[in-house]
Amino acid sequence: MSSEKMLTRIGGLLRQAESTDNSHESDAFMAAAQRLATTASIDLAVARAHASGREKRATPTQRLITVGEPGRKGLRTYAQLFLVIAAANDVRCDIAQSSAVIYAYGFAGDIDACEALYSSLLVQMVRASDAYIKSGEYRNETTVRTVVEKRGRRRAATKVRRPVAGVTARLNFQLAYSERIGKRLDEARTETRTVAETDTPGTAIALRDKELELRDYYTTESKARGTWRGGKAAAGHSSSARRAGDRAARTAKLGPATELGVAKKQLP
């Protein structure tokens, strides 16, 4: 299946997801979208395994994903959302310390699927976190912070309990949202691969060969140094916000199908 046809079919599933208020139906459509992306990836791997030497084989590629302008608020959690989607779709990533740019390594169809899923889920994550902050629920929670005070010539660190700040609540909400989305997509991916490997001989080997080729490509092309630490709630912890983010992700709907007409290089 071509990447364009795959995105068109995913769009049909998204229209169904958007037309229902039933969270269970919405979850089923989202899982179906991921299974479709995984199936397309498997088809590519099997086709490559059977291609003769004279046929043109699909090869890995690198794509620059612009998450947003450096310094813009929310980039870390936006980037984290893309990373969990990429992990479920056989795409490796490097990321700038600013969290503004992601370098995606993978097969074109897999990267297309990541961008399509991300474009839809990002809108929902931001909307859900905005609604949570406006509700003021996080104000009922406190968190422990370390405060350094000067006492004479010495500095002493003491732990104090303070109300959870809005920025802390938003960060925790969106991180928990991303974690849950990652688990949901991975479950759908695992289910699809298991069925394919059981029903179609040679699928497991083809997928393994594809994985090895991507690994070699990434090792050759990646210039990454150090470790990205963006996916951590450095501002503090909020259990209430994390529970709310997890709930929102469990019932997340994907965005309108019109967003998936063409895979975007510039993400919102």
Kindly summarize this structure in a few lines.
By secondary structure, the protein is α+β, with helices and mostly antiparallel strands. It is built from 7 helices and 5 strands; from the N terminus they run H-H-E-H-E-E-H-E-E-H-H-H. The strands form 2 sheets. Strands 1-3-2 form a 3-stranded antiparallel β-sheet. Strands 4-5 form a two-stranded antiparallel sheet.
Give a description of the structure.
β4 (142-151) and β5 (154-163) form a beta hairpin. The protein has one domain. The chain has 268 residues and is an alpha+beta fold. Strands 1-3-2 form a three-stranded antiparallel beta sheet. Strands 4-5 form a two-stranded antiparallel ribbon. α4 packs antiparallel against α5. Mean pLDDT is 80; it is low at 254-268. It has helices spanning 3-18, 23-50, 75-87, 108-135, 166-199, 203-221, 239-250; strands at residues 61-66, 92-95, 101-106, 142-151, 154-163. The chain starts with a helix and ends in an 18-residue tail after the last helix.
Low-confidence segments, given as residue ranges, are 254-268
Indicate the radius of gyration in whole angstroms.
21 Å
- Oligomer kind: single chain
Mean pLDDT: 80
Please report which band the strand proportion falls in: under 5%, 5-15%, 15-25%, 25-35%, 35-45% or over 45%: 5-15%
**Helix percentage:** 55-70%
Number of strands: 5
Lateral arrangement of strands in the main beta sheet:
1-3-2
Q: Helix count?
A: 7
> Structurally, how many domains make up the residues?
1
Secondary-structure element series:
HHEHEEHEEHHH
| Alpha carbon gap, first and last residue | 27 Å
User: What is the 3D form?
Assistant: globular
What profile does the largest beta sheet have?
3 strands, antiparallel
Helix-and-strand structural type: alpha+beta
